[in-house]
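Hey,

The postdoc asked me to send both predictions to you directly instead of through the lab channel. I've kept everything plain text so nothing gets mangled by the mail client. Protein one:
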Amino acid sequence: MAIIVNLDVMLAKRKMSVTELSQAVGITLPNISILKNGKAKAVRLETLDKICQALDCQPGDLLEYRREDGPA
């Protein structure tokens, strides 16, 4: 997938654990882990908003687009 989730980077920068984020955002630990590991197929804007509030960051700090090189 061309969208990279940098949640682990932001957690490290904020010195926050996945458990602390889960509690702050009100999302289950397994769902936070799915997002953190890049396994999520979609993210609700409400969820993204809550994560950005908890980590005091912008959506662009969490999500990155990397072009997948393929046949042109």
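Protein two:
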Amino acid sequence: MQILISEFMDQRAVAQLQAHHDVVYDPTLVDDRPRLLAAAQTCDALIVRNLTQVRDELLAALGQCKVIGRLGVGLDNIDVPGCDAKGMMVIPATGANALSVAEYVITSAMLLLRGAYTSTADVASGKWPRKALSTGRETAGKVIGIVGFGSIGRTTARLAQGLGMQAIAFDAMLDADMPVFRETGVKYVGLQELIMQADVVTLHVPLVDATRGLFDAKCIASMKSRAILINTSRGHIVDLTAVAASLRKGHLGGAAIDVFDTEPLGANVELLNCPNLLLTPHISGVSAESNERVSFLIAEKVLEALH
């Protein structure tokens, strides 16, 4: 059988697949639509990350494919109902990158709350901005509001609690009396209550109709003054124009954005020189360790599905 891999994967996991099947591993295929469509016609399994759009032409080209392996957890780049209709199993790497994302969230929160890590050039040039950087905030005692309480949200809560933060959460798919809240020591609250109470709001929800445009200008304005907003979930959930405006006005205390409506983002004048803004290229879930976990998990699951 043939396995097609269109984006980067841990080489040892690729070798594990090669020991059992014919493998076409070419991370550049995601950017070469004609070659990708041609290769898709003969594959029995397709492994992708978030850039390969498994829908429309590509979905139609998958004439004999049995399984789609997703090197990550978000499925908005995959037409899951379309795959189901063709009898193709879709396998996400649930939980394998949770720690990487959670560490990104906590690191971003600490950086933005403290606000003391942008002075290297000044200090090295002989300036001494001690007074300006003496109003940073400690992490302990702050409230972290987690929107979406799956494996990533729960791991984030655990790390935050270890730093002395109080964790509250909202998840539209969970009821307040679910055992997970009692077991984790996380208080369940309504979304509006979370937005108004949290010093740090972190988003871990899929992109669906209910979450599209969720954090718009009105929602951001209702956040606690100087709160931090972190989005590692999906673009289209947060209005970046509203984020930039709120940061410039001083209402938001900081924002870390790892996902965008269009990726790569492209030049964006609104975001240039915006204060207290961290932008990263969709890497919160990608670390050396998480790539290894995600790759081996999907390799094993794909082999099981093919056998």
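Summary for protein two, as requested: The first helix runs from residue 11 to 18.

Thanks,
C.
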